[in-house]
Amino acid sequence: MKLVLFLGLILICMIASVLLAYVWMKKTNKFWLTFIFVVILNAIILGLGSLWWFLTEIDGVSQGLGVIFYGIAFLIINLIDLMVLYAINGKGNQAY
After folding, report:
1. Are 43 and 74 a contacting pair, CB within 8 Å?
2. Per-domain residue ranges of the chain
């Protein structure tokens, strides 16, 4: 059950941040402001998830690996958000 919560939080964070980035970029058309907002949101959610994992897991190795896994997920999710925002921004600037 704990593993489902661990991975579910990452999946929920990824889906929410991509959808939020898409909606906010379409609404405001401000690339870097949208990206910074999504990065801060991911840092808060995954930071709290890392804290939860660190406090509830009893094995030291598992604590460390869980926090590292959340850190890697943070980087990958932000990279995906950057690619989504770049694709949205590129579509709006085409002169067809």
Report:
1. yes
2. 9-92
